[in-house]
Amino acid sequence: MMNTDKILIFVVDDDALLLSLIIDNLSDYENYTVRGFSTAEDCIEQLYQKPKIIVLDYHLNNDENIGVMNGMQALKKIKEYLPGTKVIILSGQNRLNIAGDLLDMGVFDYIMKDIDAFKVLESKIVKALEIA
Fold it and tell me: What predicted TM-score, i.e. pTM, was given to this entire model?
């Protein structure tokens, strides 16, 4: 049974190494319970658990996951089911129009996958929890 005092965070990324690194990094915080998913479909099936925050990769259709939902499609489903859940997009895309479109769709924040991504992600999660 999940400890209800802990904050449930879902992480969705098709890069197994990056997914593992993010989970390990966030699991260092005693007040977080972190669950990882390699596809948006797997994440969406578990939304009944009502995560407070979802860290979502923009591109989720790598060579092994052809035909699966991308981050924008997943965001629409998440917002339909859990409109109050804070979604943070983590992406290698540096195109402002994509970030703008996602923010218009209700994304809490948009983080570039770069050398500072873990630090930025941690601060954005804290900020999201303060606003919640």
Answer: 0.89
pLDDT tens for 15-74 read 899 999 999 999 999 999 999 999 999 999 999 999 999 999 988 865 565 677 888 899
Environment class of 121 (CB within 10 Å of its CB; exposed 0-12, middle 13-18, buried 19+) = buried
Distance CA 120, CA 25 (A): 12
For residue 9, how far is the Cα from the chain centroid? 8
Buried b / exposed e across 89-116, counting CB within 10 Å, b at 16+? bbbebeeeebbeebeeeebbbbbebeee
- Determine contact, residues 11/22, Cβ cutoff 8 Å: yes
